[in-house]
Specification:
Blueprint lengths: L4 H11 L3 H10 L4 H18 L7 E8 L3 E9 L2 H4 L2 H17 L4 H5 L9 H12 L4 E9 L2 E6 L5 E7 L5 H14 L11 H17 L4 H19 L5 E2 L2 E5 H8 L5 E8 L2
Antiparallel strand pairs: 1-2, 2-3, 4-5, 5-8, 6-7
Length: 272
């Protein structure tokens, strides 16, 4: 059957694929729109298979919140050129909005959700891969809940943060803590939240430094414990010096607003 420009444009609007790809898909499927969409998805799957060994280290990192829930997501691609494309950013934003609304438990659960009334998020990724010709995937996804959750997106879409609080907090103070989290990259919320493997690595580095300084062996563990306290102060959010007033820790800053106010959790992700 004859494939008209209107048919091609309709498929393009539906899938976002290029004009020539849409024309070929309709020709290969004798103008059947459903089969043409499947053809384009299969094309995406083929591209994905061919590029499986590629690194998708660029992309868009976004944080979103609806006051009591927040998410951080990274939609990754191969090149900075694609990462800065307006359509790709809109695509990532749509996926982030769905993630915030539906609260999936994992990346796989997120991909299984409907992108719209016709296809899943996983299928939409395949369409995008076929359209763009690059490896595209969700590189990171996590969520935070609290009495108030604030999101911070650093300009450039490469770093984003969500922070949850146990009580309501004014927007400016909440943003201050979120920006602190973005700038100072804490590894945990408080001392007891630091992963044991991180603590052991820090202690081992401290021991080696102390021994290299020629300190007596019976003093090594005591001095290493002191260095660990410095690590907590630098690397756990509630114990970090508040960047706007280094006389206060973040814990003290929050208590100056409300004696019972604290952070319940945070997620931070950055493309290196």
């Amino acid at each position: 059957m004859a494939i008209t420009a209107a048919d091609v444009n309709k498929l393009r609007q539906q899938t976002g694929a290029g004009m020539m790809d849409c024309k070929k898909a309709l020709e290969e499927t004798n103008g059947d729109f459903e089969q043409a969409v499947d053809f384009l998805r299969k094309k995406g799957a083929k591209v994905a298979a061919n590029r499986a060994d590629r690194d998708a280290k660029e992309g868009v990192v976004l944080a979103k919140t609806n006051s009591k829930n927040g998410i951080v997501i990274s939609v990754n691609c191969e090149t900075d050129f694609v990462a800065k494309n307006e359509d790709f950013i809109k695509f990532a934003d749509t996926v982030a909005t769905i993630a915030l609304e539906k609260k999936p438990a994992s990346i796989d659960a997120l991909k299984a959700l409907p992108y719209n009334s016709e296809i899943t998020i996983a299928d939409k990724f395949m369409e995008q891969i076929g359209k763009i010709g690059e490896k595209i995937d969700i590189g990171y996804f996590n969520a935070v809940a609290g009495e108030k959750v604030v999101a911070y997106n650093h300009p450039g879409n490469r770093l984003a943060v969500v922070v949850g609080f146990n009580k309501d907090i004014d927007d400016e103070a909440a943003k201050n803590v979120a920006m602190q989290t973005a700038a100072m990259a804490p590894v945990a919320l408080d001392k007891d939240d630091v992963d044991a493997s991180i603590l052991e690595r820090e202690l081992e580095i401290a021991r080696e430094q102390i021994r290299a300084e020629g300190k007596p062996e019976d003093m090594v563990e005591k001095i290493a414990a002191g260095k660990l306290n410095k690590f907590y102060k630098e690397s756990t959010l509630l114990n970090q010096e508040y960047i706007k007033d280094n006389k206060l820790s973040i814990r003290q800053y929050l208590q100056s607003i409300n004696k019972d106010l604290t952070v319940t959790g945070f997620k931070r992700f950055s493309l290196s």
